[in-house]
Structure formats: structure tokens, C-alpha cells
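Q: Could you write out the predicted structure for this multi-component system? I'm mainly interested in how the pieces pack against one another.
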Amino acid sequence: MQENFSLKPYNTFGVDAKAKYFAEVSTTDELKDVLSFSKTNTLPLLFLGGGSNVLLTKDFDGLVIQLNLKGISEEVLNENEILITAKAGENWHEFVMHCLDKNFGGLENLSLIPGNVGTSPMQNIGAYGTEIKDIFVSCRVLNLKTLEIALFNLKQCQFGYRDSIFKQEGKGKYVILEVSFRLTMKNHRIKTEYGAIKTELENLNIEKPTIQDVSRAVINIRQSKLPDPKQIGNAGSFFKNPTIPLTQFQELQRKFENIQGYPNGDFVKVPAGWLIEQCGWKGKQIGNVASHKLQSLVIINATGEATGKEIFDFSTEIINSVKEKFGIELEREVNII
Ligand SMILES: Cc1cc2nc3c(=O)[nH]c(=O)nc-3n(C[C@H](O)[C@H](O)[C@H](O)COP(=O)(O)OP(=O)(O)OC[C@H]3O[C@@H](n4cnc5c(N)ncnc54)[C@H](O)[C@@H]3O)c2cc1C
């Protein structure tokens, strides 16, 4: 247990907020011990995995727990499928690479997403045509009130676009201890429909891609488009892509001919990056904070000195200008603490 602890190395924005108490736990028993400390001292709790989806807007006057539970296990389900379970503290990308080394398919499109396995259900992480809900079986959680362990299946997790029960009514009630996925051992489902993957595979001269080829293509695309948090503080996409009614979209189309949208029934998903760019934010810097020059959806700690409050205020200005120009209210994807 450490006191007055700087969280700068523990969040990918590189914000220098302090935790009143900080503990790193490697076993469920250690977790229970620190939870009982927080109960005795009535401390608010904050769990951290890789810190790649949080914005710390102020010092945290409670106990921050970094979950370091490690371990991966396998159970063959049938001649084509395997159930693979990873503990919360496993690094997500290393876990994906581990599965690809064993030729287990299903996670390849989710290569190079920062963060830990235990956080992956929080917002149903997704990229390049795949979300974890596509291969998710269950997650084991600890109920923070009763300290009982429970298993949440796919349905109970209520996954949506960058959403789950853990961001809604389950918020702050559970800590995820491990996650299980159903992967293929052969007859892999190769997903290359997502435009950029096809183009990248062509660039690599690959006609019949394997799951490892898809992962390589995804890694190449991500490295060319997204800033590396080790070099410049960021938390990936700061906002969700808004979904608006078709009628509102059609109205906007009359005003903005080039507006992009992906129809889904009576609704249309509009790329937040496009909306932000149209408001002139791409590459724009105010003080220590900027919108990234290649991807306006990504807010960066441009000087490395930004406070969480500055980043939050910057994001509010973006929300206000998109609302004013398009009448669309952007929602933050990053967890604001
Ligand atoms: C460069 C970059 C690219 C990204 N690209 C993508 C992308 O393509 N797709 C995507 O979906 N996301 C993306 N993200 C966002 C982020 O990587 C994911 O949301 C990731 O799952 C966050 O994991 P983490 O361990 O870092 O979470 P943290 O930031 O540590 O935590 C996120 C939230 O979960 C809570 N939490 C942490 N661990 C647990 C636990 N075990 N149980 C319960 N609650 C917990 C925290 O309190 C916090 O509220 C990107 C981020 C960056 C920096």
C-alpha cells in the first residue's frame, strides 16, 4: 500500500494525478485484503488495468487498485473450438499474440488494442469489424459489496457499442477477475470486409490471408494511424460515433452533402471524427492539449504537461462546437474519473 502516489505512469494520457492510496494486487486474496482496508477506512475505489481508457480529472481521494492477476488456461470444447480463459491482469495485445502463436482464431482483428484482458468487457472493445461480444463466453467477477464471486454470461453482460452492464447499472459494483473466449482451432473465420484490411493485405501481396496475416495487417494500419501512447499521451478515440435517427441524417444531408453515415435500420451511425474535423478541430492545439493531426477523434496531451481538467475542458469545447454545427451531442468514450 503506497500513499500520495503519482498515477502518471499508470494512465496513457500521462496525467499527473495522485492517489491517496495505491495498491497493486496479484491474487484474489490480496484483492480481498485491500478491499477490507478500503471498507475499514471508507475509501472510494478505483480499479486500473492499463489506464488506456481513463481521464483522471483530479487527484483521487481514495484507493486505486491495479489488478495484476496473471494466467491463461485452455479447455478444448470440440474438434474445432477451444475455450480460453485469461486473468484480468494479462495485457490484451500479448494475450492476442499468445492465441495467434497457438493458431487460435477470433481475436486477430483486435490486435494492438492497449489495456488489459480484465477491462475488455467494460466497453466491449472493438476494432476492424470485430467486438469481443463475437467470441465472448463469460467473465468471472467479484461483487464488491458481498465479496461473492459470480459468473456473467454473454447475455448478462448486455454488450452494446462500446458499452456493457459494467458501464451501466453494474458500474462500480463488480471487479472483473477473468474472461473466457470461444476461439477456433481450425476453419477460422477470416474477417477482411473492413476496407482498410483488404487494402493492406493487397499491399502485403497476400491473397489467401491466415489469421496471423489479418493481425499483421491490423497492426500495420493501427501503427500508421494512431499515436503511440508511449510517445504521446492519449486514450485512443475520445468520443463514441453517434447514432442518430435516419430522418435527422437525411435533413443533415441536405445541408452537408459530404456527410458520412452507416445506416442501420431507422438509425445512422455518423463518424465522430468527420464531425469534429468539419468543425476545424483536426490538429488544433489549445495550451497543452490538441486534437491529433491524423485522427481528430483522438485527443492528445501535446506537451506532456496537460492536466486532466485541461483535457476535459478541451473535450467539452469539441462537444459544444459539434452540437452547434450539426445538432448532434457527442458522448465521451473515455471513462472520466
Ligand atoms: C492508442 C489507443 C487505441 C485504442 N484503440 C481502441 C480500439 O480500437 N477499440 C477499443 O474498444 N478501445 C480502444 N482503446 C481504448 C482502450 O484501449 C480500451 O478501452 C481498453 O479495454 C482499456 O483497458 P485498460 O486496461 O487500459 O482500462 P483502464 O483504462 O485501466 O480502465 C478503464 C475502466 O475500467 C475500469 N476497470 C479497469 N479494470 C477493471 C476490472 N478488472 N474490473 C472492473 N473494472 C475495471 C476502470 O476503473 C475504468 O473505469 C484505445 C486506447 C488507446 C490509448
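A: Regarding packing and overall arrangement: The mean pLDDT is 96.
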